[in-house]
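Below is a filled-in request sheet from our internal design queue. Each sheet records the structural input a requester submitted and the sequence that came back. We keep these sheets so that new team members can see what a complete request looks like end to end.

REQUESTER: design group, bay 2
PRIORITY: normal
MODE: inverse folding
CHAIN LENGTH: 103
BACKBONE (tokenized):
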């Protein structure tokens, strides 16, 4: 992730079985931005997943385009477990933000 703020790293955490947060975390544990990926149900083709980008999360498109490329290559993930595996391959670590402060 070449565009991340200095000293920050890519991380994720499972808030519950249906929500996985993708974020960039500062060294103090607070996050720079985050966005959840939510399981919205299932169809005959697999789980329906949605990305919910809040105001602070739009920086992800500029700072971590590799995340979006990994989530779509060569096809969309079928489950949150697969999302987690793809994030791990990018070097993301499992970590809940400490402060939750955005800025």
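RETURNED SEQUENCE:
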């Amino acid at each position: 992730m070449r565009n991340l703020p200095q000293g920050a790293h890519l991380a994720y955490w499972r808030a519950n079985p249906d929500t996985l947060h993708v974020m960039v975390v500062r060294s103090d544990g607070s996050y720079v931005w985050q966005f959840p990926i939510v399981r919205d149900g299932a169809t005959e083709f697999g789980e329906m997943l949605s990305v919910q980008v809040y105001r602070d999360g739009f920086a992800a498109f500029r700072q971590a385009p590799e995340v979006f490329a990994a989530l779509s290559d060569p096809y969309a993930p079928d489950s949150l477990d697969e999302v987690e595996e793809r994030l791990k391959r990018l070097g993301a670590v499992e970590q809940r933000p400490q402060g939750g402060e955005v800025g």
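SHEET NOTES:
- The two ends are 19 Å apart (CA to CA).
- The longest helix spans residues 80-89.
FILED BY: M.R.
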